[in-house]
Amino acid sequence: MRHGKYRFLIGALAPPLLLYGVFVVSPYAQAFSLALTDWDGLSAEAGFVGLSNFADLWGDKLFLAALRNNGFMILVVPTATIALALFFSACLTLGGGTRRRGVRGSGLYRIVYFFPQLLSVAILGVLFQFVYTPGNGLLNGLLGAVGLGGLERAWLADPASALPAVTAVMIWSAVGFYVVLFTAAMESVPVDVVEAAVLDGAGRFTVFRRITLPLVWDSVQVAYVYLGILALDGFALVQIMTVGPGGPDNATEVIGLTLYRSAFTYGEFGYASAMGVTLFFITLTLTALALRATKRERVELA
Amino acid sequence: MKRISGGVLHLVLIVWAALVTLPLLWAVVSSLKTDAEIFASPWSLPDAPQWGNWARAWQEAAIGRYLLNTLIVVGGALVLVMLLGALTAYCLARYDFPGNRLVYYLLVAGMLFPVFLALVPLFFVVDQLGMLGTYHGLILVYAAYALPFTVFFLHAFFRSLPSATAEAAFIDGCSHAGVFFRVMLPMARPGMVSVGIFNFLGLWNQYLLPLVLNPDPDRYVLAQGLAALAVSQGYRSDFSGLFAGLVIAILPVLLAYLLFQRQIRSGLTAGAVR
Amino acid sequence: MAGAAAVLSGCVTAGGDDPAEQATGAVTEDNPLGVPEGADLEVVMFDGGYGQEYTQHAVTLYEERHPDATVTHEGLQKVGEVLQPRFVSGEPPDVVDNTGAGRLDIAALAEAGQLTDLAELLDAPSLDDPAVKVRDLLLPGVVADGTLDGTPYFLNYSYVAWGIWYSRSLFESKGWTVPETWDDMLALCGEIKDAGIAPWTWQGKFPEYMMDPLQSLAAKAGGLDLVYAVDNLEADAWRQDGMLAAADAIHRLVTGGHILEGSEGLSHTEAQNAWCNGEAAFLPCGSWIEGEQQGVTPEGFDMAMAAVPALSGADALPYGAVQGSSSESFLVPAQAANPRGGLEYLRCLFSGEVARGFAESAKAMPVVKGATEGLELSSGLASVAAALEAAGDGVFGYKYRTWYPELAVEVDTATGELLAGRTDPEQWSDRIQAAADAVAADDSVAKYER
């Protein structure tokens, strides 16, 4: 019965794979070979230097700082975003008693929380540069207004607060999206299940942990992969917002910025490509881990 | 006891809502102030709304033209990547053939690869095809770079769809293409809407790709135009114009969202919550 | 003949795909550079603080002289990102203004054979007076600034001087005088602070701005020997007495509490606006600031630039010496389709007429001699012209920033830390010296000497 399977497969897969091969795979492959050269991005020829670019990376203070900072973001952004989003989602769906679905005005909250997702990174960067400005910036003004004037500082100029400040923008912009995802997942929990649990004497937290969380776990995994990718970038925000950029004292240097600067400021295209290749192997490892984590799901569904 | 914790709940929710809206409202207010008023205080309201700021952003920064360019490029790429992505994901998820895993991992790896590493080689590819600074060149590149995520997302979705309907269709003599277009694709509609919205938001934000592949200012997309405005601001003080440009760039997407927010959110979640 | 030679050299070094496209026209009195008639011209310029008026003006002159040519003129903010791929693919424009944060590395371009030798343009008759060569119209140092390994590859258009800026009206109303020594500066800072104004603010997000007064102080103390030692990556160049004393002098602004709080977190525009609003008395900047602040400077502010004070009585350079250099680098790519037209465009650009327009529209000093004569200069530009005149031959400049951008990044980072009070002058110089030593030891970095 299923004749013509391969004819269909070839017809269906050829156009997308051609597109992908021409515009994605081939440039990346060329970048891999560039990583073994000292190409300056301008001359027609590039000298082969073997793996020396990679050896140089481990003595490059900027690159190591970038690895550290992206590592911080990878640890903080997905976890904090998902934790906040789960918390708000739980408030929105489980709050306000068991009879009603969610607290009063929960619809409005859901609309408003999604707003940041609609801003492009360029807008975010420019906007938050002003928010963090010392003196008359929005954040310092806000802290002063609520009696926390002692916390006022030049947020982006202090190595201790600069990276957290950039990271906070990522979290700020991402939370609402996952609130929308998670609330919908939580609402798929039937009301009578919750009611039965409450009749059995379960508190809100128990309901959340025992019934709600397992049901949204699938969405949480998707969120983790997506937010991990976000945390490995950060280039646009850092480039627009930070001191230097990448400062102060390399506190906000990210791999994208180091790579960009090596290529476009120093003309070290081969070296920049080596950074990209290193980044590729890091991300490949993380992907493999993420896929392994989701494997369980696939077995269940099969 | 319950009332108190309910009050705290509300307070927390209101605080976050304020944190989310305050910077946006502030941008709107700032876009209507003079530069001097902006620097005098972040809180003050404008003496008289400076609509001239908006006119300056619209005309000198040509935000209107950038919007149109963006709609053409993003719209075209969206249609293309949805079609190709769904086909690819469907084949990989529902058919067994040699190399299936290899193709899948090749695609998924592309999702995580830093785009700007490929920029210069990519420029040559696009240049040799004669597509530099053209709408169709940008559309193809956008679609190619959105393909990995689309496939990754829809792959899981197609795997989760029940087989019974497809089996029945095959028995009824439906072709492979027929099963895909008439049976599986309609069943995957929630997933398609979901990944479509993801892709829209992603493509709308594209910045590095147009920067290199789209050098003609007449064809600038919004992100490029905004960056130009932001950088000009760096060289010539025009904070109010910058705020106005930001607000104009935010508004269309925000209005579209407010009009269709229920559909958008249910579309987004239908994909993730099966 | 000379034209043919330039075309040949362009093709030999550049290895472009089809040098035959680089047509040459007949050399006549009206067309000394042999521009082929009807050949199109593409000009790409950096669209920054000086605006596009002057490059457009030169387009008009070019079109008058070559009515059959179609001239495209484009202003960009990030020149490098757009042009890098075009250079690599052998399809660069005919003239490039390679300026701004996203500019291309000119030394690398020259090394890759991507630039046209401008000697022929320099020896061509100027547009204003056929008896005067273009070379002789330019201010001293301009040709040298654009010369790499003995070949003039680019010409800068704007002459920039760095100093310390203040509001004349504010200083008059308070009875303050601009200090000529650093001791006087510190004393005045105390006085200013007592008046309820922060003595200094600076563009903290870009520490380069504060490095300029610091290295000016060092140059004055140690003279050109100090400057050359730094640029030539000599051992312990950053530990020279003059350099350490200059860092210490700047550091005293920090320890004395003389800097507007939070300045280290301000962007250049934010700091400059704070200064324009009277929150701080002094601000370090180059002479472009007047144009940049045009829209927000209060009426009667009367900004003016003063030379950086002398570090001590034993300085090697006089008080009036200023850091100055030319900027806005115009070049003609070797693989351009119409390099003759590119040279001719520069001949139009470096004419008295365009230069006068530049001084008026951009409020900056053009490199063309006498261009500001007879013009009514604005407060800031007049002060810059006066400072340059007072300096005479005492104009100095560092090269390490363009020669070794890796080092410049580290200098800026260290200077940011110094100004934030997180490192002291000793640590500052150790850190930069380590970076300079690393650059000196790195064989992959091309070295320059002066």
TrEMBL record, chain A:
Main subcellular localisation: membrane
GO biological process: transmembrane transport
Single GO cellular component term: plasma membrane
Pfam families (UniProt xref): BPD_transp_1 (PF00528)
Sorted UniProt keywords: Cell membrane, Membrane, Transmembrane, Transmembrane helix, Transport
Membrane topology annotation: Multi-pass membrane protein
Record flagged with keyword Manganese: no
InterPro entries referenced in this protein's UniProt entry, alphabetically: ABC_transporter_permease, MetI-like, MetI-like_sf
UniProt-annotated location(s): Cell membrane
Transmembrane parts of this sequence: 72-95, 107-132, 163-185, 269-291
Family stated for the protein in its record: Belongs to the binding-protein-dependent transport system permease family.
Protein name: Sugar ABC transporter permease
The organism of origin for this protein: Glycomyces paridis
TrEMBL record, chain B:
Protein name stated in the entry: Carbohydrate ABC transporter permease
Record membrane topology: Multi-pass membrane protein
InterPro entries to which the protein is assigned, alphabetical: MetI-like (IPR000515), MetI-like_sf (IPR035906)
Keyword Transmembrane carried by entry: yes
Location(s), subcellular: Cell membrane
Gene3D superfamilies: MetI-like (1.10.3720.10)
Pfam families: BPD_transp_1
Domain ABC transmembrane type-1, residue spans: 67-260
Transmembrane domains' residue ranges: 7-29, 66-90, 102-126, 138-158, 179-204, 239-260
Keyword ATP-binding: no
Chief localization: membrane
BP GO annotations: transmembrane transport
Similarity field: Belongs to the binding-protein-dependent transport system permease family.
Key words of the record: Cell membrane, Membrane, Transmembrane, Transmembrane helix, Transport
Cellular component GO terms held in the UniProt record: plasma membrane
